[in-house]
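A student in our group prepared the protein record below, which I am reviewing. I have pasted the whole thing underneath without changing anything:
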Amino acid sequence: MAAGHQPSPEPAELPGLEAWLRALQQALQVEADRGFIDLKGRQTCFSSFVVQQLQLRPQDLPAEALQRLLDLSAGFQSYGELPLARRQSLVRTARERLHALRQAQQPVLAMAPPRLRLVSNSTVAGKAPNSASLNADTPLSEVRGVGPKTASRLAQLGLLLVRDLVHYYPRDYLDYANLVRINGLKPGTTATIVATVRRSHAFASPRNPNLSILELHLVDCTGRIKVTRFFAGQRFSSPGWLQSQQRLFPVGATVAVSGLVKETPYGPAFQDPLMEVLESPQSPVRSETIGRLLPVYGLTEGLGADRLRQVVEAVIPLVSSWPDPLPEALRRSQKLMGRSEALTQIHGPSSQEQLQASRRRLVFDEFLLLQLGLAQRRRQLSLRPAPPLALPPGGEGLVQQFLTILPFGLTGAQQRVLAEIRADLARPQPMARLVQGDVGSGKTVVALASLLTAIEAGCQGALMAPTEVLAEQHYRKLAEWLPQLHVTSALLTGSTPAPRRRQLLQDLVNGQLQLLVGTHALLEDPVLFDRLGLVVVDEQHRFGVRQRNRLLAKGLQPHLLTMTATPIPRTLALSLHGDLDVSQIDELPPGRQPISTSMIKGSQRQRGYELIREQVALGQRAYVVLPLVEESEKLELRSAVEVHRQLSEEEFPDLAVGLLHGRLSSAEKQAAIGAFASGQTQVLVSTTVVEVGVDVPEASVMVIEHAERFGLAQLHQLRGRVGRGAASSYCLLINDSSNVLARQRLEVLVRTSDGFEIAEMDLRLRGPGQVLGTRQSGLPDLALASLTEDGTVLEEARDVARMITAADPELQQHQGLAHALAEQRRRQMDQAARLN
């Protein structure tokens, strides 16, 4: 073998295969030429020869090809008895399959995608800005080419300054950088081909005189394709214009074509193609779209995609002069692209690799600023003095008495979390701890034991809940225990009568009232404490940081304990709540019954009603939960009011059916819950007001209408309202949606009762903003980063943030990061001011 010669693949197999294929194809050709007569040879007839050859096939053929040949063999065994049309069909099929086998098995000549030279993006990015006076804070209305109309439409998207536009990242990309040959075009994808014009024809539509058509027949070394463009308007139908189009695309010219590939009866074709004639096959493409990754932005009425891209391109050159907040040594250690380059590439990526690298850099920045902001918030809190709530020797009285009067013992998880809280309370720095616990894990008991610790140390406590229903539920539960401990408590909500409010506030300020339970009425200015020591916030994700801080400001520097029944993975919790220590109550109290969950259709609703009747006969009670108060014609959902009427009049005329929804007054809500808890009503029709806190041990059935309308974590919360007693409990999810994703979500709930698994699925399906309430958390919005998909980058950013804050807590040596953090806070404040 000559030096440097590369052998073809499978050198021992191919010559034998080629000879075998050639012999069979020759026999089939002769049979077709002779009229399909099962030609007789010297030794055997045509059909016997084919059967014999198929049995002598070469070894190691692909399994699919082998099966197709065996199918042929069976047909040729009876070839002589077949009618003429059937023989013709069999021979034609055999020739096609053998040809396909030869194509597949031949050594493949590397059919590389077309070569395409692009004018470098850096050339575009390097264009001089349209004004030397432009900077990040320049209003977009001052950018050359942006008139008042465009500026007002950009403002509708929240884009007011150059900085806003640069950070308005594409939501997707059209992949015109996907270079393929004609035979590699796949319907449903975007692609670019480079081909030669075989025929060019421009003509007016014979059916519509206002429609003109340009039709190009293109070829490359793998096949041919017809590319069509349509032009609507009288001005495009003149013979002169049509001829000019044909001259633009002369026969023999090389053309680059990009677009979405669609399926047609004649094979793949381009929909609304972008086309450019190249001076030669080696010439660069000058178009800023063809052959590139084309950014796709969120738009608003009156602002087209091309116009928005033009404005972005006008300001992107400015970023080259923007400083990079990350020190070069840190960038190198983390293998990160420079920020200016990342901003340029995210809006006009030169390749998929560059796009991924730019995205990683910008995601890293978002997470790093998030972590640094949380670290600083936590450090500022730790520098404030707080009253250490250490108990005097032998001062276990209140907490010990409370644990003694409980009808159950604490679980190991409750004991562990309570020990962590009490250790925090004994320190002179304010506690900031988040307690996560699944539905029914006993967070309230831990919170009350913590509040009693503060009260025993001579301080007051506050318990804040997001709704009046939940605040009243907490207060009712506390009212069972606190009088036995001689602890004074009161409830303050928006519905508290004025005389009671005045007396309550007076008792609070002079120290006679030890524990106050309420809603955000606790935040109002007249509410003053004598010595507030501990604040407990339930369902913390429903409160904003500013609301929490207003309550904290009412004490010397009270300790803060927040609770949530929306469990999320611990690593994610530490990242989202980096200013809080995180404890998990990951154990349910003994005796809690598993809840049998199933999904049914609306037509099977009677099954749910029969189950309700059975359970009520056993002394149990049932919830029927709906997403709406009143009928919505647009959504066609069953409303709470309508279902209450139907159930009370038609389904359960012999039972007492209650109604609970958010539009009722506080007294009416409390009456509805009280009647249900006492057994005066056996069935409670409700909206999601019952989602948190309502605790009725006798409730064993929950029927949820339009279950697909709820988030998974919310459904899990609702389901947690049953199964709180000793009886077997049931949850029926009624789903009439044909949406496959909706069904998959609900099947997660049917399959598992693990709140952490459910919350993780909810995060993936709905995103963190809705599930975790990050918009309320005071955290910056994440423009690019995904809390669920960018976990690795999140970990890296958190490690770097820890390293920086440990060595330089005030960011004195990291002025770029300090400036970026200050700028981010300023923008958040501006945004909050605009919203208010």
Notes: The mean pLDDT is 82.
